[in-house]
Amino acid sequence: MKNLFLIIAVLLCLAGVVTYLTRADHDGGTTLVWTAGLSADRIEQVAAFHEWMKKTGRVNEKGEPIFRIQLEAADNQSTLIQAVSGMAGDLIDHVPVKRFAPMGVLEDITDFARENGLDPGNNYGAARDLLMYDGRQYAYACNLAAPALLCNADLFRKYGMEPPPEEWTPEEFERIGLEYVRRANAGKSRQEAFFAGAMPNMILPLARSMGSDMFNETLTASCLTDPAFVKALTIYNRWVDELHLIPNAAEIASESADKSSVNSATIPQLVSGRYAMISIGRYVNMDLRRFKIDPVHLSFSQYPEYDFKNLVFMSRNTAIYRGSKHKEYAKIFLLFLASREYNELLVRSSDGLPPNPKWAENNPEYHTPPGREYEGNLHTNELKWAKTIALPESLSPYYPLAEDKIGYAYERVAGGLSTPEEALKLADEGIAHSIRDTVKSVASLRERYQADCELQKKIDEYKAAGKKIPAEWIKNPFHLRYYREKNMLEETKR
Questions:
Q1: CA nearest 214: which of 407, 362, 383?
Q2: Alpha-carbon distance 455 to 470, whole Å?
């Protein structure tokens, strides 16, 4: 109860500060609303924006910014309701583009982005599918992440082991993990230390490393019954249920975790030594740097995978509300997100990957922050992998709810309700049912869906015949990169 009152007090203080720092110009100047939530980081970013406006000469006769940004809290559901009803803020944060753009509530910024270097081709190419819909761009990233396995290197050395390699197979993960758990729990009456915190999110990249994905090439059907997913789910469940490399649900529930962590309840477990590694990105340092503890030496490894190395790429996007009366001003804010000032703010704060990687690539303060050398290869590796092996989750326009059916399947297996094959079949059927309902109820999708299904038949015929597939037929970003690396694509000549 004491902690609850403390949290409420902090939030009230933050709200007061937000009101003060993001209030409209006293001279009655224009104010744009950014529905980005209330946090110390967002407050700092808004203040930096106002200073950037002055620095770049975007000021009135009194030397004040020609417009200001005001923060407003809202979740995706309330924001969508506001947007559809014509009441959304000028700038919408945390935008799932594939869900919002089809409803016509986002401003198309394709030409503006291309002319000003804000298009994915000039930044993180893999972010394309997170920012675009139907070949048009509707958002720009505020920050990004390619989560992988963050390791407490001190723990490994404490038990006479080296931190894990940057790349490893599931078999290597299992062998190293068994040895670590044996050493870390030696002489204890029960298991207290685990090799890793819960990470069912690695099931998708593990299946992808074997050549499969959640959806087919045209995003018209689920592929969760593919043997690759059965194997990936079976492997992960073995690590939890049989080998106890990872805690099960009951063991997680019994932990008296320190809830002071902003990003994940697993972070205190990494620091305390209960977990040797957790699934997270460089944004972990927003917590670690605030903890009053001795520095923890870190190392960053990929998930254990097979041939096709990959990570899941994520971005926190901001888009311009199509109904905004200040779209040209809103575009200036997007320019700020790509600026040196904003990106260096993210470099210093470690609030995810900066949206414009050029300000980090050759920047020593990014790769090895002064005085924080113990953060190891975390920064370098996440940026490198974001630009090389990271891919967003495939999102189908015919499955707009995008429910986590892989997590659903794992929970059934973990609860003893289904075998991996049964659980994935149920998940697959759930997606198929949702796709049928969506296509049936949304008239604008029916013709497109039928065309994509016909295209899928052609793709299947080409695959069966061993013929290269025209790249323009592929709608799924995973298959596009996978087939390209496997020399299975027929690229369009220009």
A1: 407
A2: 11
* Token reading at 50: 């106002």
pLDDT tens sequence across 189-246:
999 999 999 999 999 999 999 999 999 999 999 999 999 999 999 999 999 999 999 9
What φ, ψ does residue 76 adopt, rounded to 5°?
Answer: -60, -40
Give CA–CA dist 436/433, Å, rounded: 5
- Give the model's pLDDT for residue 10: 38
Return the pLDDT at 88: 75
Q: Are 140 and 260 in contact (CB under 8 A)?
A: no
Q: Which fold has domain 2-144+313-370?
A: D-Maltodextrin-Binding Protein; domain 2 (3.40.190)
- pLDDT for 23 equals 41
- Side-chain-side CA neighbours of 428 within 13 Å: the count stands at 19
Left if phi > 0, otherwise alpha if psi is -120 to 50, otherwise beta: which for 241? alpha
Instruction: Note the pTM of the prediction, 2 decimals.
Output: 0.89
> Burial, 477: exposed, middle or buried (Cβ in 10 Å; 0-12, 13-18, 19+)?
buried
Distance of alpha carbon 297 from alpha carbon 399, whole angstroms: 42
- How is the chain split into domains, by residue range? 2-144+313-370, 148-199+246-312, 200-245+398-494
Low-confidence ranges of the chain (pLDDT < 50): 1-26, 257-261, 494
| Residue 390 CB partners (closer than 8 Å, separation 6+) | 124, 126, 146, 310, 311, 312, 313
